[in-house]
Design brief:
Strands 3-2-1-4-5-6-7 form a seven-stranded parallel β-sheet, with helices on both faces. It has two domains: 9-188 and 233-259, NAD(P)-binding Rossmann-like Domain (Rossmann fold), CATH 3.40.50; 191-231, no CATH class. The protein is built from eight helices and seven strands; from the N terminus they run E-H-E-H-E-H-E-H-E-H-E-H-H-H-E. It has helices at 18-29, 41-49, 68-81, 106-134, 155-175, 194-206, 215-224, 238-245; strands at residues 9-13, 33-38, 58-62, 87-90, 137-142, 180-187, 256-259. The protein is globular and about 50 Å long. The protein is an alpha/beta fold. Helix 1 packs across helix 8 (238-245), helix 3 (68-81) runs parallel beside helix 4 (106-134) and helix 6 crosses helix 7 (215-224). 44% of the residues lie in helices and 15% in strands. It binds nicotinamide-adenine-dinucleotide. Nicotinamide-adenine-dinucleotide (NAD) is lined by residues 13-14, 16-20, 38-39, 63-66, 91-94, 115, 119, 142, 144, 187, 190, 195. Nicotinamide-adenine-dinucleotide is lined by residues 13-14, 16-20, 38-39, 63-66, 91-94, 115, 119, 142, 144, 187, 190, 195.
């Protein structure tokens, strides 16, 4: 089995969540020490326990990515207890409300931007400034297909994820002179699971022309729009992230790769 990340250290944000944990597992399997960052210590402990079998160092750190001081402290802790961060999976996120723009809740818009865009910038800034000093590093940001095509009723999420795609392009240019690559992934419809159920229920509840008002019908409508005619499995994400973090993609920077079934 390939161990592309032997001896490296990875920071994963949103690591107690579905995609974060699946990617952390893949990185650990390929030899990387991992630092898991998320909001909740209990969920982080469960996640860390599930990685114990891989024989790498696994540390957890509670941090709210919307608070820059807390991000700096978390990264200091990660580097002191595990090692210099070589790999960053910048992935914490929140989907927000579903409502057309003229009814979108104002406070939720701010919250989504603070987590998905400003939070991603905070982590990117704090990690990359340490990578710049070492002239080495590889970064993957989690955007979304909602950041490449504006979906209806997702004003805050869609704009934030467009922002993440932009941040990835800008950062790839700013950091290229320092030997650091920055790429992104744009997952689309993943499931089954909580996110898929939440998304289809809330889209149905918007009662707009784009979707049926019945969540089960919304599921069928959404899948019918996917050329491969199925949802993506969470396990179809880690391989792409590992590729973008690894030297296998050594001449790729600034791209956001759709993981979308076409
Ligand atoms: P998830 O809800 O399982 O995981 C997200 C994690 O981020 C959670 O554990 C949550 O606690 C953490 N988080 C939220 N706010 C935070 C904050 N302020 N500070 C630190 N951590 C915070 O969802 P997921 O599907 O694993 O999502 C991971 C990423 O993938 C997100 O950026 C999401 O927008 C994106 N995404 C998901 C899908 C999908 O269908 N699942 C599709 C496209 C993009």
């Amino acid at each position: 089995e390939k161990k592309r990340f032997a001896g490296k250290t990875a920071l994963v944000t949103g690591a107690a969540g579905n995609i974060g944990l699946a990617v952390a597992r893949r990185l650990a399997k390929e030899g990387s020490h991992v630092v898991l960052l998320d909001l909740d210590q209990g969920k982080l402990d469960t996640a860390a326990t599930s990685l114990a079998e891989h024989g790498v160092k696994v540390k957890t750190v509670v941090c709210d990515v919307t608070n820059y001081t807390s991000v700096e402290e978390a990264i200091d802790y990660a580097e002191k207890t595990v090692g210099p961060i070589d790999l960053l999976f910048n992935n914490a996120g929140y989907q927000g409300a579903f409502a057309p723009i003229h009814e979108y809740p104002v406070e939720d818009f701010q919250r989504v931007v603070d987590i998905d865009l400003v939070g991603a910038f905070h982590v990117l800034r704090a990690v990359s400034r340490r990578m710049v000093a070492r002239r080495s590093g590889s970064i993957v940001n989690t955007a979304s297909m909602a950041g490449l095509q504006g979906p209806p009723n997702m004003g805050a999420y869609g704009s934030s994820k467009f922002g993440v795609v932009g941040l990835t392009q800008v950062a790839s240019k700013d950091l290229a002179p320092h030997n650091i690559r920055v790429n992104g992934i744009a997952p689309a419809l993943m499931g089954p699971g909580f996110m898929w159920d939440r998304q289809t229920e809330l889209q149905a509840a918007t009662n707009t022309q784009y979707f049926s008002t019945d969540p089960e019908t919304v599921k069928k409508e959404m899948v019918a729009g996917v050329p491969m005619r199925r949802l993506g499995d969470i396990e179809e994400i880690p391989g792409t992230v590992a590729f973008l973090l690894s030297e296998d993609s050594s001449y790729i920077t600034g791209v956001t790769l759709p993981i979308s079934g076409g």
